[in-house]
Design goal:
68% of the residues lie in helices and 4% in strands. It is mainly alpha-helical. Strands 1-2 form a two-stranded antiparallel sheet. The longest helix is centred in the middle third of the chain and has 29 residues.
Length: 362
């Protein structure tokens, strides 16, 4: 069963994005793209879902820069007051993308065409800035996030290039009198020149234009919200704020799990105190500590052996719990032991729940 789950996870995480990327590259550089609308739509939608899942698993964003978090959590990559800005750009950008993808230029009103292209360019400026923003915290597996960023850039360049080619054809078919206008002639020459670029050159130019726009905005020449959305953060590439010191979990893996796992899985209950330090407490940690307390009271010699084992191996284990996903896995692996501790407490203690609840109280 475990092997089947691993195989399915591998297909979802690696094979599907890889196949879609190869198909997109082939379509972008092909004169006759195959099933472009279907493949592009799957890339945006399925890739977007996988992106959000991987992002959530790799980055446990726990609040804005001024919030005190634990050592393996991370502050928000976008300041919460400006999340609306990101959502608007993403929604408008993808609306523009799908408009250009599904509607031919001759059936598209001029203003809608211009708005769609502009929205798509803004989306790519945003996604490139965000890709740079998260670079500081990218690990081995989270490099897969950049596969999605690269695909969006490639698909955007492709639909804009096709839009330009179609607009040139429309211009050629129009009344010849328009060609007497010098401005029209200049624009026509520029559009024709762009339409003849190979896909590699077009993507490169698109990327360079976006980078220049990023520099322009971050230099303070743009709107206030786009800048502060990325700079009013901590722990990321463009962050300018200094966060409060993190909550300590004392280096032991049960403390690390309670503090670092996803809340829906490890279920943190409250803050507690351990050796003068504030820690995050969940029920698994309280049960384990209550079990140790009973052993210490009734079997002191056995307790010393258990304590030595935990001190010897607890800290090395905690060093590998460097992401919320790993904390979740260790939490689930510890579940059988947690149940064994709980059964033991109910067998030997008169008030097991009271003992559990008083653990780590400040």
């Amino acid at each position: 069963m475990a092997a089947i789950i691993i195989i399915i996870s591998g297909i979802i995480a690696f094979v599907i994005p890889g196949v879609l990327t190869i198909l997109n590259i082939n379509n972008c550089f092909s004169s006759e793209p195959e099933k472009e609308k279907l493949i592009s739509s799957l890339t945006v939608l399925v890739g977007g879902i996988l992106y959000m899942i991987l992002h959530m698993l790799e980055f446990d964003e726990a609040g804005d820069w001024y919030v005190q978090i634990n050592k393996i959590q991370i502050h928000n990559s976008i300041f919460s007051e400006y999340v609306w800005f990101a959502k608007v750009i993403i929604l408008l950008g993808f609306a523009g993308f799908f408009t250009l993808l599904f509607v031919k230029a001759e059936k598209l009103p001029p203003l809608i065409s211009v708005i769609s292209v502009a929205a798509l360019i803004l989306l790519n400026i945003f996604q490139i800035v965000y890709a740079i923003q998260i670079y500081k915290n990218i690990s081995e597996i989270s490099w897969l996030l950049y596969v999605y960023h690269a695909n969006i850039l490639m698909l955007s360049a492709s639909v804009i290039r096709r839009q330009i080619i179609q607009q040139v054809k429309i211009a050629v078919s129009k009344d010849a009198d328009a060609s007497e206008n010098k401005l029209f002639q200049w624009l026509f020459l520029r559009m024709t020149s762009f339409s003849k670029y190979t896909m590699i050159v077009f993507v490169s130019l698109f990327f360079i234009i976006a980078i220049l726009e990023i520099i322009f905005v971050l230099a303070g020449q743009g709107l206030d919200a786009p800048i502060k959305a990325f700079t009013d953060t901590a722990d990321w590439t463009f962050s300018k704020q200094v966060p409060p010191p993190p909550i300590d979990y004392d280096g032991h893996y049960l403390c690390t799990i309670a503090a670092g796992g996803h809340k829906k899985i490890v279920k943190p209950l409250r803050l507690g105190s351990r050796r003068g330090e504030t820690i995050v407490v969940n029920r698994q940690l309280c049960i384990a500590n209550a079990f140790e307390e009973v052993i210490q009271e009734k079997f002191p010699k056995f307790h010393r052996s258990i304590r030595h084992f935990y001190d010897t191996y607890g800290y090395p284990v905690s060093r590998y719990i460097t992401s919320p996903l790993r904390a979740d896995i260790v939490y689930l692996l510890m579940k059988p032991l947690e149940w064994a501790f709980l059964i033991f407490l109910y067998l030997v203690d008169l008030h097991p729940e009271k003992r559990i609840n008083r653990q780590y109280k400040k």
